[in-house]
Amino acid sequence: MVEPADSLGFEKLTPREREILRLIAKHQRSKEIARLLSLSPKTVEMHVLSARRRLAGMPRRDAALAFVAWEQAPGNWD
Question: In this structure, are residues 37 and 68 in contact, taking their beta carbons and an 8 Å threshold?
Fold first, then answer.
């Protein structure tokens, strides 16, 4: 069972975590994201791990897709 979107913790994500989740949702791999953002792949993985912790351990792809859906919902913009 999926929790209501407002209780998943998306609002707690950092701007960098959000940016990386958006790229994951577009099927980008850590190495590709690292190249795009001028980061090391390890740094990308650390941001992903941090985001997943904030989102109660959701799997990487699920977290990315859920975040993008939440972000596109009315009233959830920064």
Answer: no
Q: Give the span between the Cα atoms of 24 and 60, in whole angstroms.
A: 8
User: Could you say which DSSP state residue 27 is in?
Assistant: T
The burial of 70, by beta-carbon neighbours within 10 Å (0-12 exposed, 13-18 middle, 19 or more buried), is given as middle
**Residues with Cβ < 8 Å from 74, sequence gap 6 or more?**
none
**Whole-angstrom Cα distance, residue 57 to residue 78?**
23
Residues 24 and 48: beta-carbon distance below 8 Å:
yes
Q: What is the pLDDT of residues 5-37, one digit of tens each?
A: 555 789 999 999 999 999 999 999 999 999 999
pLDDT band of residue 3 (cuts 50, 70, 90) is: very low
